[in-house]
Design a protein that fits this description.
14 helices; 6 strands; two-stranded antiparallel sheet; four-stranded mixed beta sheet
């Protein structure tokens, strides 16, 4: 028998993208037992808190209904008034309890898995109508777990009910000797506390079900090694595609950079390997700005554009390398190069004056050394 491919085993933790996709499809951790227990406990507490108010309202309604007006037998308007009063009183009596039950029905589900609204979860899934899939779900491990939980609920709740009956046996027997009005109130109180105790027993089921649901959901979202690799490729892109994108980005950046070269005041070269184009406007810039830079073919292109637009080109290898390595395109040159660049600009100005016949002899090329901390000999 051939060995199973380990890449097909779901051994990897789900990626953030997998978790986000699951949430979009409405697949989040949920516990039906937590929802049921939360609603039942809320109902039991509401009976204890609002029980006297509800009971007194019911007594008022009963007294009102039994104080029957004979005219209601033939006058429908009076009967309608009776009905409106009864509906209003009953709604007012149970509205606090219903409000808390509504709140519990919202809070209990989102307490595990958080709030999540998904239209995809509301869409019909025809795969669930497949009889074979239904049989598979019926005999799956999840079905066995649900069956075990069902029997567990019967045993836990049944045991709690037996404990209540045994513990309150004397309370129930004592009601026989109480006046009717007192016995009714006593029985209501005993029933409310009994209901709360039985509902509290469902907490034991929740303590088992919640960790199981968290583990089951995490296990369902696990991925194979191949799925992780495919997702990484789809997210990050294939290496050849990424390389092509970077190449296109560099080409676009170079085109934008080359379009600024005609505005340069001077181009400083290495003379062949490096080229940097600088611009300086004394009234608008605190320091010279680097418009373009490049090596080899890009440097050649910068020199070609400079020659085409008659921009002065000065060969100063050390200065060209320092500006190239220590200045970003569009940024100002380092403070340590101010003097060297200022001498180059002054040199360009003097050459221009000499060509116009306003200087007796051509200027000498500046030889100001580059500071050691800014030198690059590569």
């Amino acid at each position: 028998m051939a060995e199973e491919d380990p890449s097909q085993e779901k051994t990897e933790e789900p990626t953030p993208k997998k978790k986000e996709k699951a949430r979009e499809e409405g697949d989040v951790t949920r516990s039906k037992e937590l929802n049921t227990s939360g609603i039942l406990l809320t109902a039991a507490l509401c009976l204890l808190v609002f029980g006297p108010f509800i009971a007194s309202s019911f007594l008022k309604v009963m007294a009102f209904c039994f104080s029957f007006d004979p005219r209601a037998s033939w006058d429908t308007s009076i009967a309608t008034d009776y009905l409106q009063v009864v509906i209003y009183e009953m709604a007012w009596a149970v509205s606090p309890m219903f409000a808390f039950l509504l709140l519990a029905s919202i809070v209990a589900p989102i307490s595990l898995g958080g709030w999540n609204f998904s239209t995809k979860a509301m869409a019909p899934k025809f795969s669930r109508m497949n009889p074979l899939s239904g049989l598979k779900r019926m005999f799956s491990m999840n079905s066995l777990v649900e069956l075990g939980k069902g029997w567990g609920k019967v045993l836990v709740v049944g045991a709690a009910a037996v404990i209540v009956l045994i513990g309150l046996k004397n309370e129930f027997l004592s009601m026989v000797f109480q006046p009717t009005h007192q016995a009714i109130g006593h029985s209501a109180k005993v029933l409310a506390w009994s209901f709360l105790f039985i509902c509290a027993s469902t907490i034991l089921i929740v303590l088992v079900d919640v960790p199981f649901q968290i583990h089951s959901h995490a296990k369902k979202l696990r991925m194979t090694m191949q799925e992780v690799k495919e997702e990484f490729k789809n997210t990050e892109g294939k290496p050849e595609v990424k390389a092509k994108v970077r190449q296109l980005q560099r080409e676009m950046a170079n085109r934008r950079m080359m379009s600024d070269v005609p505005d340069a005041d001077v181009i400083i070269t290495n003379p062949t390997h490096y080229a940097v184009a600088l611009k300086y406007e004394p009234n608008a810039m605190p320091a010279p700005v680097l418009l373009a830079k490049g090596v080899d073919e890009v440097a050649l292109k910068i020199r070609e554009i400079g020659s085409e637009y008659k921009i002065p080109i000065v060969e100063m290898p050390a200065l060209a390398r320092s500006i190239f390595h220590h200045t970003k395109i569009g940024g100002e040159i380092p403070e340590g190069l101010y003097i060297a660049v200022a001498q180059v600009l002054a040199y360009i100005y003097q050459i221009d004056m000499w060509k116009k016949g306003q200087a007796a002899e051509p200027p000498r090329k500046p030889t100001t050394p580059v500071p050691e901390d800014l030198r690059r000999d590569d």
